[in-house]
Amino acid sequence: MDFKLWLNNKVEIVEKALKDNFVRNENRQKLIYDAMEYSLFAGGKRLRSVIMLGVNEIFSNDYKSVLPFACAMEMIHTYSLIHDDLPSMDNDDYRRGKLSNHKKFGEAAAILAGDGLLNMAFEVMSRESLKFDTDKELLLKAISIIAESSGSEGMIGGQIVDMFCEESINDISDLEYLQKHKTGAIIKSSAAVGALLGGASETELKTIEKFADNLGLAFQIQDDILDVEGSAEKLGKPVGSDESNNKKTYVSMLGLEEAKKLQKKLTNEAIEALGIFDEKSEMLIELCKYLLVREK
Amino acid sequence: MDFKLWLNNKVEIVEKALKDNFVRNENRQKLIYDAMEYSLFAGGKRLRSVIMLGVNEIFSNDYKSVLPFACAMEMIHTYSLIHDDLPSMDNDDYRRGKLSNHKKFGEAAAILAGDGLLNMAFEVMSRESLKFDTDKELLLKAISIIAESSGSEGMIGGQIVDMFCEESINDISDLEYLQKHKTGAIIKSSAAVGALLGGASETELKTIEKFADNLGLAFQIQDDILDVEGSAEKLGKPVGSDESNNKKTYVSMLGLEEAKKLQKKLTNEAIEALGIFDEKSEMLIELCKYLLVREK
Predict the structure, then answer these.
(1) Which residues have C-beta within 8 Å of that of residue B135, sequence separation ≥ 6?
(2) Record: contact B111-A86, CB cut-off 8 A
(3) Which of A111, A178, B108, B192 is most buried, by the most CB atoms less than 10 A from its CB?
(4) Torsion-angle region of B96 (φ positive above 0: left; ψ -120 to 50: alpha; else: beta)
């Protein structure tokens, strides 16, 4: 199968599921839906949900019960971007080529839109899970994995380290700790939930987690590289912000060439982990290669 | 049984469960736990979880599986207060006689602490639910009820109406719409989950929801009354803020005497709804009376 076709198909499935699950009302609280919708449908890559669906199809042909979880990941990812962009956080005016949420709707509405999306992620997972025949214990476990990955031992923990503990980042293992929490945790949980709901065994789940750990770090390094080498037009946000903010990144700590080497190494390790699944992981392997050379 | 003893016992059970379920680490992200803990253990009334436990014991003698949900309600309530107090929202410097979270930890940490508590509510519910023998479908349903009540059709929706649609509040039914979302929704879901997990029938659940609807509004009216008649010392926050902020309240729209009459009427309706449960609802009835005369 052609990878680009596969990818476009997965993104389409996710976009449709998001539209189906983003239940909005035209009532008095219309503004909260406008603000949530603005960022949720701002043209994200849907990477986390594509990974979830891609992993899931190694194990299963029925992705329907996975979709609410894929939607939840996109809602959680989007809320984290809205809150990260706030003036008291990274103070970013643009995101994906559009005004950031607080620039468009004001700070209070942006905070509430973020809260609303985080909350909606759990609304969708719990409500939709009730509609499926899938073992309810497995669905609860999936909610639990996602909740843990986005919380204080996961993404939120990473964000607080990034905001307040920059001085504690002294070597690559410190940076890895930060990124495994801030960006890696929800990439890993996306993969894990895809595997779990597909019926993966314990060993298979561990293999998938190893794949996702490596892919998540490689993804982050590419982000750091794009901030140096990328195009503001393609990225939809200014480049060079890491350097001007004195941020510690893989590029600033390793230099551009070493960062690229590490990124390739991690991508290869992600691909190697998938080896046990033979041709069933073909598209995921293509995804790893695609992310290595992405320009946005 | 003596009501005050009963109430203290319930609050103690909740405090202990919160300490057990607030799993913190002394790792790099220590700050997020400090900020979350600061507000979660700031001496709240634990009203929502007391209502949940009080309703539950009408139907069941085993409250253990309800505790994670009681903790979740306190986490959700606390996060909403942290975010409400932010400069871009109500800009309040004090809460429960202490500095508000952003005054103590700064705005970025306060936003993340709120996010962390909302997220932790779902972590606790999903993780702990996996440990109980209770029907997993019922537990998923309970998570779903809570998620809906705290989201854009519940508490967050109420907050956005309060912040941005003040001009649409023209009569008591408008104000009721606002309060049923902003404060009523999670009081109602607390009662509903207590009933559901206790094994209540559909009819019993509806009765409990009617009770909680009336109690929630009566509770809000008492809040409005205390902002006029209360003591700043007892409340732990300044009084008169509604008037100085030109807020539409039951007192400003009805006058003090009529507001008090309505509050009594709603309290009586809450108590009457409990009638079908006979002596089993004795303590909940005492709780209604207690909330009618509370000073903080």
Answers:
(1) none
(2) yes
(3) A111
(4) left
Which run of H or of E encompasses A118?
helix A107-129
pLDDT digits (tens, 9 = 90+) for B189-233: 999 999 999 999 999 999 999 999 999 999 999 999 999 988 888
- For residue B34, the distance in angstroms to the closest alpha carbon of chain A comes to 11
Partner-chain contact B163 A108, CB within 8 Å: yes
CA distance B192 to B183: 15
Structure tokens at B236: 């732990």
What letter represents residue A26's amino acid?
E
Domains in chain A: boundaries: 3-292
Domain spanning B3-292, CATH class: mainly alpha
Going by the DSSP 8-state scheme, the letter that residue B215 receives in this structure is H
Report the distance separating Cα B295 and Cα A268, nearest Å: 65
Do residues B228 and B251 make contact, with C-beta atoms less than 8 angstroms apart? yes
* Per-residue pLDDT tens over the stretch A176-211: 999 999 999 999 999 999 999 999 999 999 999 999
Could you tell me if the ipTM is greater than 0.90? yes
Q: How far apart are CA B187 and CA A21, in angstroms?
A: 26
pLDDT number for residue A112: 98
Q: Which amino acid is at B104?
A: K
What does B106-160 look like in DSSP terms, one character per residue? -HHHHHHHHHHHHHHHHHHHHHHHTTS-S-HHHHHHHHHHHHHHHSTTTHHHHHH
* Cβ of residue B116 closer than 8 Å to a chain A Cβ: yes
Return d(Cα B238, Cα B251) in angstroms, integer.
17
Backbone angle region of A229, left / alpha / beta, with phi > 0 → left and psi within -120 to 50 → alpha: alpha
Point out which residues pair with A94 in neighbouring strands. A99
Q: Does B86 touch chain A (CB under 8 A)?
A: yes
Residues 6+ apart with CB under 8 A from A212: A51, A55, A184, A187, A188, A190, A191, A192, A270
**Hey, which residues 41-80 in chain B have their CB within 8 Å of chain A?**
79
Per-residue b or e along B170-186, where b marks 16 or more CB atoms closer than 10 Å to that residue's CB:
eeeebbbbbbbbbbbbb
Mean pLDDT for A98-108 is 97
What residues contact residue B167 under an 8 Å CB cut-off, 6+ apart? none
Give the rounded distance of the alpha carbon of B136 from its chain centre: 25
B181 secondary structure, DSSP code: I
Residue A138: enclosing H or E segment and its boundaries?
Answer: helix A136-150
Q: Is B131 on the interface with A (CB under 8 A)?
A: no
Please judge whether B161 and A115 are an interchain contact, meaning their C-beta atoms are less than 8 angstroms apart.
Answer: no
CA A255 – CA A108 distance, rounded (Å): 39
Residue numbers in B near A31 (CB within 8 A): 160, 164-165
Mean pLDDT calculated for residue range A140-161:
97
Strand ranges, E, within chain B? 94-95, 98-99
**Pairing assessment for the beta strands A98-99 and A94-95 based on DSSP bridges:** antiparallel
